[in-house]
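#struct-pred

JT: dropping the chains for the assembly here, can someone run the whole complex?
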Amino acid sequence: MGKNKTKTPAKSSDAPTALTLSEGLREISISEFFTKNRHLLGFDNPTKALLTSVREAVDNALDACEEADVLPDIDVKIRPSKGEDRYIVSVTDNGPGIVSEQIPKIFGKLLYGSRFHVLKMTRGQQGIGISAAGMYGQLTTGQPIRVRSRISRKHPANYYEIQIDTTRNEPEIVKSHEVEWEVSRGTQVEIELVGKHQRGRRSIEEYLKQTAIVNPHACLRHEAPDGTKMTFERASHDLPDQPREVKPHPHGIELGMLIRMLKDTKAKTLKSFLTTDFSRVSPRMAQAICQNAKLYERARPTRIAKREADSLYKAINETKLMKPPTDCLIPIGEEQILLGLKKEIEADFYVAVTRPPTVYRGNPFQVEVGLAYGGDLVADEPIRLMRFANRVPLLYQQSACAVTRAVGATAWRNYKLSQPKGSLPIGPVILTVHLASVWVPFTSESKEAIAHYESILKEIKLGVQECGRKMASFINKRRRAVEAEKKRTYIEKYIPHIAGSLAGILGLPDKKRDVMLEELREILERSRS
Amino acid sequence: MKDCEGLIKKVAQKVYSNIHKGNKPSLAFPIRSLSNVKYDPKRGFLQIGKRTKQRTLTVNTAKTFAQTLRMMELSHQLVQTDDIATKREAYYVSKNWDDARFDEQSESDDIMDDVEALFMVNREQIGFVPEEKSGEVAGNLVVVDRDRESGERLEIDCTRFGTGAYSIPISVEELGFKTDADFILAIETAGMFQRLVKHNYWKKANCVLVSMGGVPTRACRRFIRRMAEAKKLPVYVFVDCDPYGIGNIYRTLKVGSGNAAHINEYFCVPKATYLGITPQDIIDYELPVHPLKEVDVKRAKDALKNDPFFKSQRAWKKAIEQLLKLGKRAEQQALAIHGLNYVMEEYLPEKLANPKKFLP
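RK: done, full complex below.
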């Protein structure tokens, strides 16, 4: 605030009026929205933008393959383009392909295809996804998103170049034609963008490696800008089951969501809205809710949306309901986690735990923990923690995440690791924590850290503890073996001196000395156990 | 002299037969510390108590057990061949023992002390001799020794070393003494000893001067004891007035040490008395002082609480309490404040005029 601004209202004739103010109002374009909110979408800086683009494309590809019951084969190629810090990201899958007419909308329209009011455990949750990456590329390089897709060998491949009309949020087809393509079925997306390629903890390699760990049924290939190639082989031929769609549980929704559902519902009465648009609401329970809210069962949902949504929301939360169904969750499974860990990490000991599904605020979720110990892993640094939500690695904001908190709050000293108070323990360990849920509660839209819900923290801790206990018993067993071996060599070192000096003092012949040596060995071996 | 060879063989035989029976062999060592001694004023020295520590052969004790037996074997060899090894030499011999070797001499010294206590002999009897200087003697004394090769009788006149002195040998058992001195004065520091020798104080006072150079070695203690008993001489001790001079130097000379209590009977001088410097001297002679350090205070309190000798002597209790109350200490050489030769001309004559006032 400048000094010359005071609280006294200006009395001059050019004081703003409602009329002049309204001139300033206009619909903000989608590109403006994007530019202003890019940090929320994972495009805050060039390094992250490159990773986010790859991530969106790979997540889409994996989802598409699994939906079509195909073992995913995914190629990720990053090529440098003309101009500084410009790259072409190219992701090719062997999925079902996309029919020609759908291609422009999927890649050229933001928020297209997002499922309203239906929950399903999928990788991409908000559906901002790949078109946002395309938008980012378009904004930074002016280049359209390029798509090749083919639905079967019998059909030709289609090639599209699509721009997004940023004022209308509509796809604009730059080019489209049939094309020769050696791939018999699948989709390839190419985005040219300004980015920064880096290695290390938050690199594309790391993202792919972690993805490979929790998706052992996928084969991922990668080519870096400098031409180095890397393959994460498939370790399992079992495709994960397809998650079922579920309606939301009343206890899991927020007021805004409730209002939107009331507005959009096809139901004609409040009671039928409650029973048909939600899970676990029987007619009897719907009646109870209406009574609690002092609302007429046959009221029109749209009317409720305007005036009484608040009391309905309260009544819903005050009414005891059956817990949501949990069969909509598809965990990775202990066996698959072990396969993933073993193929990507050299270690001496592996363990995995899949916790039973449970519920936070009306949303079913399930925690899975994997642990690799020893081998070539670094022993004198904090353990490596890998966080996953619905099989997607979370590489950013580790310290803000519920997983980190729960792991830090676990008493690792009980499991033979040293631990600075409240922090990650020190030791040669990679710990993977997977949260599967139809609605993963992230702390922000960028989907990088899981929110600290008590029941989630508790489940993570329980899973981590179980893995910790198993690791500790492995460490103990190994330590005992090492100690036994050490003792044996220790005994072997000193008993010759005992036998030798006694033989020297007593003038015993060598034969008697050797007998004594054997007797000593027996005495000490016995005393060990 | 005990039959050390036989003793060693007996212990070895017991260990051997235990092994042969399939039992864990075990050695019992008397505990060598002040906590395992008692003081009987009639006998006049710190006697070793009955408490022992067992060294049983287990995986964890295998190394120490092996080293103990190796040390016994070395001792056996020395006794058999009538040879000796210094503590340092024994440490170097251990370098042949592969993994059972000692890394520090302090470790081998410790095992050697264990073996010595195990047989209840002084280490010289089992072939081990100390490295350290034993002490020096000047004054009205002739030491009768023998020539190593010829066995010829040698008479060593301790008045004829000029400004130097006679060195007490490591083994003093065979020595004889001739003197008509009135007393023996055992002195803590070499500096004070030199002053008294330089001015022929022994002639003036008709005495034998012994420089202990700190805590007296076993040989030094034994030398004074034998000389005093043979010639019926009183022994007066002249040390710094601090908890170390009193609690370590004087106490060890008079009643022996806690660490080698099994041999104290012979290696102490129960008849010795404390000439000075007493805490009262600090006041009477207005001596320049230093404050007691933390370690001094601890040592003094420890003497009052744990030392069986001081605990049994009221006069000492009072003196140490006085010292603690003063919170100061004074060195022998502090007497120099009154003139360099004040100690010979005033202090010692005054004190010697009244030996009854010495501390016990």
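JT: nice. Chain B has a mean pLDDT of 91. Chain B touches chain A at residues 8-9, 12-13, 15-16, 19-20, 22-24, 57-59, 62-63, 65-67, 69-70, 72-73, 76-77, 97-100 (CB under 8 Å).
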